[in-house]
Each structure stands twice: as C-alpha cells, then as structure tokens.
Design goal:
Elements lengths: L1 E3 L5 E3 L11 E2 L7 E2 L4 E4 L2 E2 L6 E5 L4 E3 L4 E4 L5 E10 L5 E11 L3 E2 L8 E2 L4 E4 L2 E2 L6 E4 L5 E3 L4 E4 L5 E10 L5 E11 L3 E3 L17 E3 L7
Parallel strand pairs: 4-11, 13-20
Antiparallel strand pairs: 1-2, 3-6, 5-9, 7-10, 8-9, 10-11, 12-15, 14-18, 16-19, 17-18, 19-20, 21-22
Length: 220
C-alpha cells in the first residue's frame, strides 16, 4: 500500500492477507447402526480456519460432540436423517445431511418346539434370525445324530428316541450374540406288528390283528 502526499512525499507498508479454502464437510456417509448396540463414528471437515466446532441433530440415543464424534446407543430402528454443522474459528459454517439406517436388534425368529424327528430317518430344519448386522453364524449341540451348521441348518439322522432340549446361539457381524432354548422330539421308527399272520382256510371266517409301534399316535 502506497500513500502519496501533495508535496510528493510518500510512505509504503506491506500487509499480509491470509486466504483460506472454503469450509467443507468431507465425510461422504456414516455407517449404519443397530438398535441397542453401542455406536461411534467421526465426522471430518477441511478448509476454513481450524479449530472446528461441531453440532447437529442425531437419532434418539446418539449425540454429536464438539469434536465431530457421534456416539451413543440408538434406541429406535429405522431410517433417519442426520444433520451436522461445523463451525471454524472465523465463524464460517458448513452443514450437511446424512442418511443413517438403524437396524433392529439381533433376534431369533424360529420358535420352539422344532418339528419332530424319527430315529433312523434323515432330518433337516433351518433356524432363522433377523436384525443385527448379517452375516450370521450359528452354534449349538442338537440331539445325538444331528448337528447345527454355521448357516443355521439342523441336519442328520437321529439315533436315540426322546424329547431333547438344547440351546442354539446366533452371532452377527458385530459379534453380538443371542441364544434360545429349543425342544425337539425324536420318536422311534414306525413298525407294523406282527411280522406274520395266522393261516386261514378258504370258506371259513378269518380274523387277524395288526398292531403298530413307534412313530407318534394316533395311527391310521
């Protein structure tokens, strides 16, 4: 800057002007959450003059602190809009909306008792889960002759009759675990008795009795 006087005297002085990039929220999206499970993510910004101060509105159970960290335990499932605002030391602000999906808590859908099985007969049934964050992994110890796969299928050939109770546990991608007790009835194989009938004579009245064992009455 140069200042000139009418007598041709002049004086000059240099000034420094600092120019900042525009303040921008650089976070593109926020990860989904699960109802009842602790949640945490951090928002990021660039430009302006740091330090930054964050504020905003979040779903029930979550909050945004001044550092841009959103955390808490969501209390409701659904699709929500999160509005975040960052303010720099010059008072400049930038606001951005994010879509946030909160999934229902992990739960086992299959109810007890399970379909009955028969000794010596191939058996298969599937356990089902919902909520949480797939994929799911299953574990448990069904009755002798049966096994539970990680995909939730109970399969095999039962070897012992009786009513059995066992626990099955499902784990989602966040390592959240839910268990439930199941009952399965294993019946003896159906058998017709006797193995032979009495002889008959042509022209004479005949009577022979059949009986049955195993399976599950009533019989037809």
């Amino acid at each position: 800057v140069v200042l000139a006087a009418s007598v041709n005297n002049s004086i000059s002085k240099s000034f420094r002007i600092e120019v900042f990039q525009g303040l921008t929220i650089t976070s593109v999206s926020v990860p989904s959450g699960i109802g009842g499970v602790a949640y945490s993510t951090s928002l990021a910004a660039t430009g302006g003059r740091p330090p930054y101060r964050w504020s905003g509105t979040a779903p029930a159970g979550l909050s945004i602190d001044t550092s841009g960290r959103m955390s808490g335990t969501p209390t409701s499932a659904g699709d929500f809009t999160l509005s975040a605002t960052v303010t720099d030391s010059l008072g400049t602000q930038a606001t951005k909306d994010f879509s946030l999906r909160i999934a229902p808590p992990l739960a086992i859908l299959t109810t007890s008792p399970l379909a009955s099985a028969t000794v010596g007969v191939r058996y298969t049934t599937a356990l089902m889960a919902t909520g949480g964050r797939p994929p799911y992994g299953w574990s448990g110890s069904p009755p002798a002759g049966l096994s539970l796969t990680a995909a939730g299928e109970i399969a095999g050939t039962p070897s012992t009759a009786g009513t059995f109770r066992f626990a099955a546990e499902v784990t989602d991608a966040t390592n959240t675990k839910v268990s439930r007790a199941f009952t399965i009835e294993v019946v003896e194989g159906l058998v017709i008795q006797p193995t032979s009938l009495p002889k008959g004579t042509a022209g004479l009245a005949y009577s022979g009795n059949l009986s049955v064992g195993g399976g599950r009455p009533p019989y037809t």
